[in-house]
Amino acid sequence: MNEHSQILLPEAFADIYRSRPGSARLVLPLAEVAARHELCEDLAQALTEHARALLVGAHLAEDEVLRRCFAGLRAEGAGVSGAEALWVVRRLAELLDWEQPEFPETGQ
Description:
By secondary structure, the chain is mostly helical. The protein has one domain (11-98). Helices cover 56% and strands 0% of the residues. The protein is built from 4 helices and no strands. The chain is elongated and about 45 Å long.
């Protein structure tokens, strides 16, 4: 970002928009990538209470809560790409201090 921006763009998120692995070049303008990051970060933050409620109220394991959140984010109309959904769920796990999820269907 530029020197006036207060948003720090994590490399893991920027990697979603790299032209190829290891490249510094983004496929979208930096401002758009930053806006997508802000949306995804907000989603992860907003999902923390929902995830805790599922853990306790529905008596689900942490990995199942994360799987359900991921499925919801991948649903049509969710507003995020598959790669962004994966990032959101990984960020959610980080915010909750839960184990990072593995999703065999994504290869990640």
